[in-house]
Every structure is written in C-alpha cells, then in structure tokens.
Specification:
By secondary structure, the chain is α+β, with helices and mostly antiparallel strands. Helix content is about 25%, strand content about 35%. A hairpin with a 5-residue loop joins strand 20 and strand 21. The longest helix has 28 residues.
C-alpha cells in the first residue's frame, strides 16, 4: 500500500474517533457563600447543562428568604478533545439573589427544571445568617435642605451615601474615593426620585465627588446626589424605592496585567445592600393665623412691578397688564406661584372688568412674569390702582403684602349710536332722532322698538330704511360667531375632553399609561377648560382653578385626592387606573363651570 493511501486511511479513522459527544444532562446550583447577613444579598447561580430546551427553574418559597431571579442569562459552550474524542458542553447560567430578612439557619430550596417530560433538580443548600454590620460599612440617608420646608417653598433633597473608608492592613494601602465609588453597583441599585439626577451626571461623564467626613469617630467617604424639591403635600417627603448595592472590599492583592506590569486588584469583597436609614426632611404647612384676603399660596419674599399698555384707551378697550414678581428670598417655588387674582381685589371691582381665568405665567430666572387684560368701565377712570400681592415670609414667620405703584391712564368715552328711523314728518321739520350716548358701554335700541314708533302708513318706506340696519345687525352677529370660532381658548374648552382621551391613548414604553401620564392628562384637561397655558398647572394650581370656576366642593376634593395619588404613585412606582381618570373627567365635564371654564 502506498504512503498516500495509508495517510488517507489514518485520517478517516481519526475522523471517526473524534465524533462529537456530550456529557449527560444535569442541573447544579453554586452559592457565593454559606454564611450570610441579615438584609444583605447572596448570589446563587443555577447552571442548566446540555439541555436544548427546558422549562424553569422552579423553586419553593422559604419564609424569611427573599429569592429573586435576576435579569438575563449567560450561555457558554465549551469543546474538549481527549483521546481522539470531541466532547461539547453547553451551559446556561441563571442568577438569583437571595436576601435573608432575619438571623438563623435556612435551607435554600432545590431548583428544578423540566425537559422532555423529565424533572431535574439541584441539591438543597444550608446557609447560616448572622446579624449584619453593613450599616457600619455604608450609611444611606436623605437630607432636606432646609430640613423644615414650607408648602409652596422650593428647597432641595440630598441623597447621601457614606461609605466607610477601606484600608488593607496587610498591604498598608487605602482605596481613594474614586475607587470606592467604582464598587457601587449602579445598574442593580434603585435610586427612587434621585435616578434622573444621577443619570444626568453620568451622561455628562461626571459622578458625585466623595468628601472625607468623620461620623461617630469613624472616617467615611460621603457622596451626595442632589435634586430640587417643590413639595405638594405636608409631612415626610416620599423618595420612592431607594436601595444602594455595593461590593465592599475585604482585601486587596497585587498581580500582573497583560503587559506584565504590577497592579492592584480586588482580592475579596462582600455584597451589601442598604436602604435609607432616615428621610431627614419635613414639609410643614404655613401658619393658620390671620392671612390677608388676597393671599393665594405665595411663600417667600417678593418684589412686584406692574406695567400697563396702552395708557390711552376708550371705554371697553383692553389694557394689557404685565406683572413681574421677583423672588427676593431665593427659596420661592416659582413653578407653582400664582398671579394676584385681580377680580378679588376691591380696588379693581368698581372701575374695571377683569376676567376670572388665571393669568399666564413664564419663569425668567428668579422672576415670574404674568400678563392679563383688563377693561375700563367708564371714562371717569383716572388710574390703574396698585396691584396687591400677599405672601408668607419664612424668614420673619409672618404674612406680608407688597403693592405696585398706581398707573395713571386716560380713558376716552365710547360713542354708541341709538338708531331711531326718521318719519317723513320729522324729515320735513329737519329733526333727527339720532341720540349720542357718552361715557359708557350701552346696547343699541332693538329693532322692535324702532318699528313700534312708526305709523302703519309709513311701514313700507320704513322697511326700506330698516333693511340696511338689519343687514348690519346680522353681519355683526355673524362676525361675532366667527370670532368665537377663531378664539383658541374657546376651541380648547370645547375640545378639552377629546384632547384628554388622545393623551391617554398615546402609547407608553410599558404598554400602558403610567401614573405620571394619567395625572398629566387630567391636569392638561383642567388647563384646557380654564384657559391656562399648556403644562402650567401642577396639582395645587389645578385645584385652585377648579375652585375659581365655582365647581362643587365634593368634586374639587375628588380631583385633589386623585391628583395627589397620581403624584405619590409617580414617586413610589405604583399604578393608577386610567378608568378612574376617565370617570373623574366625565364628572368634571358634566359640571357647570363659571366664566373661564364655561362649557
């Protein structure tokens, strides 16, 4: 046999010997440690080996243990060739977190999978749980700035993470604040209302800077995450679910990297999970003592400037007031600050017509600017009276009032013609029945009155004269109707409920409307009904708008309760039923709204 044919035969035999083989199907559980601590997570990895398809894993609940499957799976395939035989192993790793809630001895139950009608299980594992000292390794708390915050005052909430400074005594090396921060598990931690602030920092390649602080005689590195806070309810603020997870180091070790350079690595660690020990902040109501009648929730210290244009008008012409309210305290919640209600101020009651709807406002730095139109009722008006703004000053603990300067204006009389058709006799005598009315806003005489003054024999000539007047009246009515149709506020009121339904129908990431979206839809409906700028109403402003529209108190209380629950649900991650929102809006839509929210 030639050498060529011999080599072909050897290759064929080798190919037969190296055909793929697999280990038997099995399932195992690997525990990070058999010793645990109260309220500290332990990791269990369930390995499902050589299954093409399976259901599970399944396990029995154990009192005192919180067992949670972690998201994601890890699939690994390995191939080994030994003695000419090729062995392939496919492993699917599924991770679980086990948090014991009390000290003692527990048995982590067997995990079971099903495949091909067969059941495969792991062995139960015993663990010992001791009281935790994690509260000494990391302290998490929420601190208000200031601690006592008045409803209507803007402040801040700080999430403080105090991590005990670590030093490896064997190596004599301490970890700096950057290294300690890198051991915090950002992905698996829950940040509550502080999540957006932290995410913004990370997106800008920033992180909280740690500062050394001595707490109870021990050195800690304190990291602070801050967010602004404009409270809507009294009591302890709700911060949502906050749980910080960290791999706290237990020892360090030296090793060589890819370039054979000596480097320091983590030789051992301990998983800890901490929730805030306290929410050290309180929202308090303003005092119930004597309040100015014009006070509508302003908290802080303010300056007020009012500008009017134009300064020369006829009776009934609009005058635009621009009210600039400046926060001089630096603590006012400008987002919820309302404009002075001019309709409730006696100085404006006799000389001006003032709308009831809320004045629109925009924030410019520490100033909020409102605009509103008023109309003089007579030509005897000589000035726009001072606008009054009442506020509660936390610095002095008292209510105070600031007033703008009076603004001189010139109001000219309006001329309204009263049409009385001339009779032939009056025409021959050179008499005119036109009457000029000065100094007020009056209505013209009716057509019936004009026709009633004519004798029967002059009816046909009179009709010829009245026809143009009828055409003018009809044209005025049509123009007024067209103006109302073009009025954006009127269109918003008519379409408020339809807009509400469209907002609820907008798709959400999770497939349903969130509590935040449902609450925003109800607030937008109320804004549409009262003519407030879109997105300008928060819970308190919406309730005040319903009160100004003279709705039934019970209905206002229902709306107030619903909006508060939406806000709490947003912070706590709870759900709100959209059907409840629809029922509330249906009742609001059926109510009788005063001017500014009229149907």
């Amino acid at each position: 046999m030639s050498l060529r044919y011999l080599s072909i035969l050897v290759a064929a035999v080798a190919a037969l010997c190296t055909q793929a083989a697999s280990f038997a199907q099995t399932i195992t559980a690997q525990l990070s440690s058999s010793d645990g601590f109260v309220d500290e997570p332990m990791r269990v990895v369930v390995n499902v080996i050589n299954f093409d398809d399976f259901d599970g894993p399944f396990f029995d609940e154990v009192p005192g243990l919180q067992i949670t499957r972690l998201p994601g799976e890890q699939t690994q395939t390995s191939i080994q060739i030994a003695n000419g035989r090729r062995v392939q192993t496919r492993t699917v790793g599924i991770s679980y977190e086990v948090i014991p809630h009390k000290a003692g001895t527990f048995v982590i139950p067997a995990f079971m999978v099903q495949s091909g009608g067969q059941k495969y299980t792991t062995n139960p594992t015993q663990i010992t749980v001791a009281a935790s000292d994690a509260g000494e390794l990391m302290i998490v708390r929420v601190v208000g700035e200031p601690h006592d915050l008045y409803l209507g005052q803007e402040g801040g909430l700080n999430l403080e993470l105090a991590v005990k400074a670590f030093k490896d005594r064997a190596l004599g090396i301490s970890l700096d604040e950057q290294s300690m921060w890198s051991l915090i598990d950002l992905e698996r931690s829950s940040w509550g209302i502080f999540g957006p602030a932290l995410q913004k920092m990370l997106s800008e390649n920033r992180r909280p800077r740690g500062e050394m602080r001595v707490i109870a005689g021990t050195e800690y590195i304190v990291y602070t995450i801050s967010k602004s806070f404009d409270p809507i309810a009294t009591g302890t603020p709700s911060v949502g679910e906050v749980r910080v997870r960290m791999e706290y180091p237990t020892r360090l070790q030296r090793g060589n990297d890819f370039f054979n350079q000596s480097r320091l690595t983590l030789g051992g660690s301990r998983a800890i999970s901490i929730t805030p020990s306290a929410v050290d902040a309180t929202v308090i109501p303003v005092p119930d003592g004597p309040r100015p009648a014009s006070w509508n929730g302003a908290v802080g210290r303010f300056g007020l400037q009012v500008i009017a244009k134009p300064l020369e008008v006829s009776v009934g012409d609009p005058i635009t007031l621009t009210m600039r309210i400046t926060d001089q305290s630096g603590i006012a919640g400008l987002a919820g600050l309302q404009a002075p209600v001019l309709a409730d101020q006696p100085a404006f009651a006799s000389g001006f017509r003032v709308p009831r709807e809320s004045a629109s406002g925009t924030v410019e730095g520490r100033t909020k600017v409102f605009t509103q139109s008023i109309r003089a009722l007579g030509d005897n008006v000589r000035e726009i009276p001072p606008v009054e703004l009442a506020f509660f000053d936390p610095g002095t603990g008292s209510y105070e009032i600031v007033r703008s300067a009076a603004i001189p204006i010139k109001v000219k009389p309006s001329t309204v013609a009263r049409v009385d058709v001339e009779t032939p006799q009056a025409a021959r005598e050179g008499k005119s029945e036109l009457t000029k009315v000065d100094g007020g806003i009056l209505a013209n005489a009716s057509l019936d009155q004009a026709m009633g003054s004519l004798p029967n024999e002059t009816m046909l000539p009179a009709l010829a004269l009245v026809a143009p007047a009828c055409f003018a009246v009809a044209t005025a009515i049509r123009l007024r109707s067209d103006a109302q149709e073009r009025n954006p506020l009127a269109r918003r009121r008519r379409g408020a409920r339809g807009s509400f339904e469209r907002r609820l129908a907008e798709p959400a990431a999770d497939g349903g409307a969130s509590a935040d979206a449902i609450g925003a839809a109800v607030l937008a409906y109320i804004a549409d009904r009262v003519g407030a700028p879109e997105g300008s109403l928060a819970g308190r402003e919406a309730v005040e708008a319903l009160a100004a529209a003279k709705l039934d108190k019970q209905l206002i209380d229902e709306a107030d309760d619903f909006l508060r629950r939406c806000d709490r649900a947003r912070y706590a991650g709870a759900s709100i039923d959209a059907a409840e929102a629809r029922a509330l809006v249906a009742r609001l839509d059926a109510a009788a709204w005063r001017e500014g929210g009229a149907r």
